[in-house]
Each structure stands twice: as C-alpha cells, then as structure tokens.
C-alpha cells in the first residue's frame, strides 16, 4: 500500500477535482497528478465509480482534491502564493489562470475557474515590502495597491525613484 503524505492540503471541489489537478500539473513546475481514486459506493455528492479524490502536487505541495459536492466553496481565506522571478513568469502564471475562465483581483491576486485563489507575487515585491527600509517598503506597497497583476517595472521604479 502506498504511503500517504503526513501533511497535505485538501481542496474541496464540486465534481471537478481531476480537471483542476490536471490544469495545475500542466501550468506549474514541480506539479503532477499522482493518483485518481474512484468512489467504492454511492455517496451524497456522487455515484459508485465517480472520481472521489485526486492525489496531486502543486509547486511541490502535496494536495488532495475531494469531490465533495456543492456544499462548500473556495474563498480568499486560502490561497496559493506563487513566487516569481521575472515579468514573463508572472505573466505566464497570471494569464494561465485568468485565461482558463476566471477573474482578476487586486495586488497580485486572482481566482481560477474552480474558485481557488492564487497570489502571483514577484520576489522583488516581497523583498521590497518586507525591507527594513520602511520608506522603500511604503513606496513598493503603495505602488502594489494600484495593481491587479503585479508589474515588476513599476515596483522597480517605486523602490529606485529617480531624483
């Protein structure tokens, strides 16, 4: 019998755990779908033989997708934060999520078609807003507040203003 990860994230879906896991595996590095488990009997959200759970990894984080039905929805209180190095990488992840049928939000947040929230966050932004130089941190933070997708060039200008 295969060993189960000691700790993993369980994400509740309404019948689309496999589609979500496959999208994440195609979109992000160090991601894969490792197992699909079918229900051994009928259950409140489905029938025997339906996909019940999906074991997958997103950016190295072990996850379980549970097809639990419509009772619970994802919200912004949980999100995956994806650290990016370049604008190209930021754009690629952001666009993959948005182009797959969902919505932009503020400050680098977006939501996929299943309602899972993502923070696509360039490391330059994280480094700037956590800087011990509070003036620099404030400039970066204030620049971020006006954005949806993070624009690295704008953050760079905010932290390195021309006098």
Number of domains: 2
Q: Architecture of the largest domain, according to CATH?
A: Roll
Helical fraction: 25-40%
CATH-derived topology of the largest domain: 2,3-Dihydroxybiphenyl 1,2-Dioxygenase, domain 1
Radius of gyration: 19 Å
Shape, please? elongated
Spans of at least 5 consecutive residues with low confidence: none
Beta strand %: 25-35%
- The total count of strands amounts to 8
- Structural class assignment: alpha/beta
- Averaged pLDDT, please? 94
User: Could you spell the SSE succession in H and E letters?
Assistant: EHEEEEHEEEHHH
Largest sheet: 4 strands, mixed
CATH uppermost class of the largest domain:
Alpha Beta
Number of helices: 5
Spatial order of the strands in the main sheet? 1-4-3-2
Distance between the termini: 65 Å
The CATH homologous superfamily name of the largest domain equals 2,3-Dihydroxybiphenyl 1,2-Dioxygenase, domain 1
